[in-house]
What we know:
CATH topology of the largest domain: Jelly Rolls
CATH superfamily of the largest domain: Jelly Rolls
Helix content: 40-55%
Strand order of the largest sheet: 1-8-3-6
Strand content: 15-25%
Largest sheet: 4 strands, antiparallel
Mean pLDDT: 87
CATH architecture of the largest domain: Sandwich
Amino acid sequence: MDLKDYQHEVVVTDAGLPFKLFSFEGASGNYIRDKHWHRSIEIFAVWEGKLDFTLHDKKFPLSNGEFVIVNSNEVHSILAPNPNKTVVLQIPQDTFAEYFTDDQFIWFSHGDRESDHRVFTLLQEMFLIYTNGEEGNKLQVLSLYYELLYILVTKYRKFNVNEEIVKSNKQLKKLSSITRYMKDHYAEPLSLELMADQFNYSPSYLSRMFQKHAGINFKDYLLGIRLEHAVRELEETGGQIVDIALGNGFPNSKAFSNAFREKYGVLPSEYRKNN
């Protein structure tokens, strides 16, 4: 299982290109990515296999030849229990600045459209050319990329967006600074009260903000960050489990083992043996 470092994900574009294009990290299966969000627009295109996407609380199962558009600051999670071949394109939100609403906002539809096949084909061609390595391939990839942007703006952009979505987007922008702090200090004894004081909120308000706009409570969100770091250490180091537990913010190895088993179904020692 390969997990990213934190819940509010920072997206960095590829060198010399205005986007990030890569193979999905859960391609080998046995993969869970908890609820998270980022400012970039993200497209997942499945070539082989299946993915189970959740956008907020709505399910979007994907199979061969299908894709999903994840909007900026849209809370999503991913389950890939089996091997798959999936390409991911991440586009910085500011790419669409010229098309923002007065709220500095843009939203793309998740629904089926006649343009879906062309979008999927463009993503395939972009990836194959980009990974080919031949001289001048960036120019060809860019030409396909700008065609894709044109289709997104003209065929997928939504003009009548639910006011609740706009409000949630604004709140998640505020939460992003909080989750960045949690990412940097996850190994420390953080609490809802401490974070509320740090960012000048009341604990009850911050708790409601997490639950309503991130779809997860503060405690579970922090636990997810700590577990993701711990999983990586289990995979990549030979450290003692008690040291991994303490080094990632757990009070003791028992608390770590209980939380780990509840999420992944096995004890840390079994997970390490299997991986």
